[in-house]
Amino acid sequence: MSATSHRELSTLFEEADKAWDEYVATVKRELVAWERLRPALVERLSILRARISSSLEEAEELKVKLELGLIDEEKSQKKLNALLEEIPAMRSELEQAWLLLERNTLKSILHMKRLNLPLDVTEEDLRKKLESIETSFKRHIIDSKDVYEELKQLVEQQLQLVST
Amino acid sequence: MSSSGVCPALYKDSKGKFYCKYAGGAEVDPAFMPCLMEYWECPYYVQAAKAKKMEAAAKEKEEAGVSVVQPEETTRVVSRPPTAVAVEAEEESLGASELENLIYQASELTKSWEEYERAAREVIEKWEELRDRLERELLSIDSSLEAYAAELNRIELKHKLGVLDENQFEDLKKELEGKISEKMSEKENLQRKIEELDRLVIPHYKRVKAAEVKPEIAKLRIALSKLEQKFKEGGITEDLYKKLKAELEAKLKRLEAIREEVEA
Q1: What are residue B195's phi and psi, to 5 degrees?
Q2: What is the SS3 assignment for B18?
Q3: What is the reported pLDDT for B89?
Q4: Are the CB atoms for B177 and B156 separated by under 8 Å?
Q5: 3-class secondary structure for B124-180?
Q6: Mutation target vs A (from B28, B134, B140; most A CBs, 10 A cutoff)
Q7: Inter-chain contact A61–B148, Cβ cutoff 8 Å?
Q8: pLDDT tens digits, residue range B175-218?
Q9: pTM for the full predicted model
Q10: Residues of A in contact with B184 (CB under 8 A)
């Protein structure tokens, strides 16, 4: 065997190993960055969900209070208009933020599975998330059918990864 | 007003249930309503009475086309001794001026009260609106706290699983605990502001509401009764029914407390 073939054979997988080590380091770094950035996103989602839900409930209450004679029509209409005005913007922000969360969650699970890192999410957690998406869509907390479908698809993909 | 002390709008069906004509035929419970007592203070009675008055006034105006001139009454003049008249006149003028003074003072008092009432109602309305906004902010803060608490649990789990090393975990934990502490402080501040606002406004609320506490109580009782009916008929969800019922009962309790204070 020549000296060249010997050298080639001994350095054969070095580049792949180097690429892999870089990949591992990058993933670990980005997972930590994700843990740092996630709380602000989750907080915003939580606030938007609560605000939209409460505004929708209040709008329903106003209608019933008007029927019960507890509030006059002008006052009720003014309050209703104010509530209905703020909901679309909050909804749109919620939908985009929620998609961002689930896309990044899917990527984090995918990379963790590749590195054989233990997952912090269970199948039960993901099934509850799917229920939450259904409920949010039924209650008009999210409105867009496309966003609803995409969210469901993202969480189903997460479920598939977690269960294999 | 009916001499029997029973509201003329109250009626009973064959099953023995009571209903109010003036409240659009809503079911009522006379045990808790003013139907059998001071029904003239009931807001529905007042509304119906006003409407009747306006109808009568409109009718009168129509009939006022024909007017009859009545002869003037002749006044009898009684003669008295001059000194007695002078003393009597002086006494009368003192009494009259005291009376006029008191009438003037009472009118001024009425004006002051009306101005106070107007200003107080404005403040109360703003207080109710602001309180709603502050309650919504509190709701946002509670949502934030819930989210951060969940994230803290998450990173603790990741640390246990070995995904985060000690330094990474401590750094992230410190950040989250900092945010939680910030939000808690914001919440306490907001709650203090709401309490301060309540402390200042509630005495005015009580003064203004004391005058209308009985009709307001009646109105709330009718509303509760209508709410029950609506829920039985499936017109609203159970969650909404429970929430509104709790709100109305809390308002009733507040007003009844004011009534007790006023009547004490």
Answers
A1: -65, -40
A2: strand
A3: 59
A4: no
A5: HHHHHHHHHHHHHHHHHHHHHHHHHHHHHHHHHHHHHCCCCCHHHHHHHHHHHHHHH
A6: B140
A7: no
A8: 999 999 999 999 999 999 999 999 999 889 888 877 778 888 88
A9: 0.69
A10: none
